[in-house]
Amino acid sequence: MRRLPAIALAALLLAPAAARAAPADTAGFRDWMTACDNVGDCMALGFTEGEYAIGPYLVVQRAAGPDAGPEISVALVAEERDAAAGATVRVTVKGGPRPQSFTTVAMDGDSGAYALFVAAEANDLVRAIRDGRSIDVEVNGTVFGTVSLAGSSAALRWIDDRQGRAGNVTAMVATGPKPASAVPAAKPLPVVRLAAGVSQDNLPTGLPPGLASRADVKACAEEHADPEGAFGSVEAQRLSANEYLWSIPCGRGAYNFSALYVIAGRDGSGARSPGLGDDDTLVNGGYDPESRRLGAFNKGRGFGDCGQEDEFAWDGRRFQPIRRAEMNECRGVPSEHWLVTWRAEAR
Asked: Could you give all domains of the chain from N- to C-terminal order, each with its CATH number?
């Protein structure tokens, strides 16, 4: 499987962790990847075989709790062909006791067409997957690509274990006699109370002396000298009557632009951390004052199919993590299907 380039992966691993977010619960099994978030919802991705291959992939999602069943999406991704909503999609699981086929109609998603299987059909497909070796994907009768099932059984078993389904009638692989009622309920979703919105009129411009003298700001200037201003200028956005979120350009690559974030007054006084991690630096970050959300999208490569995506919410004191998704395999997967490891509700 194709992983992030060494430099990009190193940058990703050094990116600041979401404040107080639990460590990512992820795993890899040959051609499959898995993750569970802090609530207990889990997902698995299965890819086309081959280190550099980009083709259709499977997304298996299952919410936490005794009543949640699996949902399976087949993303219709290919390098030299397209699929559209309304097309007939047929997936055939091979390598088990006998080939098993499932047919549906393609739907249109944010990043292209996909096929969706839910309820009893998804359960039947899961059983076929755990016994098979590969899945042929056909669109309108033409083979679109193949998904490898190498590692699928281990990936689904991993999810069973994380969700407390091992030995349970609801398990996808690790089935047993325990009743559905024995499955733990989903953990509560953390809630972040948003601070009130404030006017963005008459914002300060330029870096005030109170910030320019800070060691971390000086380090940015020394390490990433930018005499032509090619990767942006200092920006400030109002968080409250007396505090601003300062964004200070601190580095750039071919498709990644990093900035140091500091909370301080208009003149730079009272500077403090916004709570984004060890060094308060984000890649491709941006703050939306209307929603009080700060986002970052660290691309593993320019195509944007791998890396890390974070979102924080302003609670009046610091920025709290409300979402993290990551993908350390560059396999043509859009961010909507990245592995989610942290969620919270902002309101």
From this structure: 40-182 (2.60.40.1880), 191-346 (no CATH)
